[in-house]
Amino acid sequence: MLKGKTALVTGSTSGIGLGVAECLAALGANIVLNGFGDAEGPKAQVAAAGKAHGIRVGYHGADMSKPAEIEAMMAYAAKEFGGVDILVNNAGIQHVANVEDFPVEKWDAIIAINLSSAFHTMRLAIPAMRAKNWGRVINIASAHGLVASAQKSAYVAAKHGIVGLTKATALETATTGVTVNAICPGWVLTPLVQKQIDARAAAGGLPVDEAKRQLLGEKQPSLQFTTPRQLGELAVFLCSSAGDNVKGVAWAVDGGWTAQ
Ligand code: NAD
After folding, report:
1. What's the CA-to-centroid distance between 113 and ligand 1, angstroms?
2. Catalytic residue at 155?
């Protein structure tokens, strides 16, 4: 289904981004990975997922808080892969503190990585998508793009922002073959969330499993984590022809979190 297309997934050396990259690779898309840490393991994992299609897997280590590095990454994708047909804006970080205690550099980093980076990748990718009259932008927002939690002001602001950015650009491209949508996961058990579980366990003197149960119980009625693969399968749907007329949605995959 996606043979001949190239997908760039930001923040895909771990967690949700890696899961989405694997699902797109399994349908035949070439993949450009991005993110910190080891790149060889994720590259091999994604290549294995797309082996039947003989896909190509590239990697660019751009820091998504730095517009010049984002430009270099997009230039790399254009040169090595002929451009980006599917753009998944996924890189993200979290910091938890009351607004009056929120470190200014953490606020700036969260807005830059979780929100502004998507503006930069989109402004650079959309012209070629328009020219081909086909493209998919999938922004990994969050349940926190729809509702708030205390101690997460920067994250909630960035995620509400990316939902707004999604809607505005979906309207700008509405008459073209380009779609722009957001996926809003609830809790997914990745390193980003494991940190919050560990902090909860340490603060309450709880076993990690109990901290996990409490975390889910507070917000996610299904009491189940969403998996990166489930999010990847939704991305696959949005890339299919069934998704041609899905424009500007913020699609919750949150076990009922935002239905409450
Ligand atoms: P993760 O920590 O497992 O992965 C984050 C990825 O982003 C990693 O590959 C990391 O290297 C990369 N990254 C971080 N800073 C970067 C930077 N400056 N430049 C480039 N790459 C950078 O986290 P995850 O849980 O997989 O989160 C992925 C996205 O999903 C984030 O946008 C997050 O807000 C969102 N999300 C996660 C959950 C959840 O429960 N885990 C829920 C809703 C939304």
Report:
1. 9
2. yes
Are residues 131 and 197 both part of a single domain? no
CATH for 125 = 3.40.50.720
Best mutation site among 8, 10, 90 for ligand 1, i.e. most ligand atoms within 8 A of its Cβ?
90
Of how many residues is the chain composed?
Answer: 260
pTM (predicted TM-score): 0.98
| pLDDT tens digit sequence for 30-53 | 999 999 999 999 999 999 999 999
Instruction: Share the mean pLDDT of the chain.
Output: 98
Residue 257 maps to a domain? no
Provide the residue range defining the domain that includes 193.
189-225
Q: Which residues line ligand 1 (CB under 6 A)?
A: 11-17, 34-37, 63-65, 90-93, 113-114, 140, 142, 185, 187-188, 190-193
The verdict on 85 and 125 lying in the same domain is yes
How far from each other are the two terminal CA atoms of the chain, in whole angstroms? 36
